[in-house]
Amino acid sequence: MQPALALEVQPAIALLEKTPLVLETLLHAAPAEVLEWKPSAERWSIREVVAHLVDLETLFVERVRRILREEAPQLPGFTPGGSLGGPFRDAIDRLVRFAVLRGELVGLVKDAPASAAARTGIHEELGRITLAQTLNELANHDLGHLRQIAELYRARAFYPNAGPFQRYSNPQP
């Protein structure tokens, strides 16, 4: 693999590997009421965010698998409003499913040769994409939703009980 690709992919893989543990650490002891709370009807709860992560991870595992095994495979875009995590009942069930899927994705990438970062697929909306770009986008996506989950958690669980300290923060869930 070219050195520039190695630099592009390794931080993404490291983050992707850690995201399930970060989510588990953050959410394991969270009350169900916090996990289900929605700041407004059109916004997601933490449970729904985790469900979305399951939906997207399912798609990305398949994309990565196909990029590694096929020559420039046709790759579908993401259709919002999918199953929101499948039949799992709560956020923790969904988090377990996400961790399994993420472990599968990281295993695929770690077992791949160094040259795999330059392999490509043809995304139905974006055109030609590399494995390196795919992994960096997924890491970017993880960080966006980790931030979203943290804002939901702090806005519901802690900010209301901060008393006069509320003046120092302004959660934006």
Number of domains: 1
Low-confidence stretches: 1-5
| H and E order | HHHEHEEH
Output the number of helix runs: 5
The whole-angstrom Rg is 18 Å
Task: Describe the sheet with the most strands.
Answer: 3 strands, mixed
Helical amount among residues, as a percent range?
55-70%
Number of strands: 3
CATH architecture: Up-down Bundle
Structural class based on helices, strands and sheet pairing? mainly alpha
CATH class: Mainly Alpha
What best-fitting shape do the alpha-carbon axes yield? elongated
Mean pLDDT: 91
Quick one: CATH superfamily? dinb family like domain
Beta-strand percentage?
Answer: 5-15%
- Taking strands numbered 1, 2, ... along the chain, how are they ordered across the largest sheet? 1-2-3
What does this structure look like?
- By secondary structure, this protein is mainly α.
- The protein has a single domain, classed as Up-down Bundle (Four Helix Bundle (Hemerythrin (Met), subunit A)), CATH 1.20.120.
- 59% of the residues lie in helices and 6% in strands.
- The chain has helices at residues 3-27, 32-36, 46-69, 91-110, 131-158; strands at 74-75, 120-123, 127-130.
- Strands 1-2-3 form a three-stranded mixed β-sheet.
- α1 (3-27) runs antiparallel to α4 (91-110), α1 runs parallel beside α5 (131-158) and α3 (46-69) runs antiparallel to α5 (131-158).
- The radius of gyration is 18 Å and the shape is elongated.
